Amino acid sequence: DTGVSQDPRHKITKRGQNVTFRCDPISEHNRLYWYRQTLGQGPEFLTYFQNEAQLEKSRLLSDRFSAERPKGSFSTLEIQRTEQGDSAMYLCALLKREMGNEQFFGPGTRLTVL
Amino acid sequence: AQTVTQSQPEMSVQEAETVTLSCTYDTSESDYYLFWYKQPPSRQMILVIRQEAYKQQNATENRFSVNFQKAAKSFSLKISDSQLGDAAMYFCAYRSWGTSGTYKYIFGTGTRLKVLA
Questions:
Q1: More reliable by pLDDT, A43 or A28
Q2: Out of A12, A58, A74, B111, which residue is the most buried by the measure of CB atoms under 10 Å away?
């Protein structure tokens, strides 16, 4: 158990619909990452939070994507007007200082856009 | 920009044998970390081993060890006494500082390891 949960684990939606994913750290960690992983690829950085501040966003994060981390605890990632190209695994990861600043990943949310 | 390359999409190893997964990277930085992550089917990605670039000694974690060649920008993972539970996707990753003053990770495309009974 890495101390990171994600919900839902799977999401199937129709093109054009909005979806929201949630990442919940079991304990408080101030640094949180979102990644996207498509089939046959490694995780690609999407965005990063330090506490509630979103400090960095990848160019992969188009205007249809928005991420929040209110109160610096859980985080949400919303995709508006989904496209088939959004189909991927969305991973959340925490940076744990007490573990040598290592990243600990959640199980991911697998999104399928029909 | 940094890049990480894993040239072996798939590898197979007999149970109890040894296998080596390859990884090369490109960077102009001198201070960085390298990692191997394991992603079992439908399970969370977990850290296997890490190497600090300024350390010449290769990292070892039980049956897992690395061969870090800084000049050649090579970072291979050796798994000894392979077990069925080692079957997974293995990702090589590079860590440096991002523009926001935190760590930024770049992952390779992964190597799928099959362990044959």
A1: A43
A2: B111
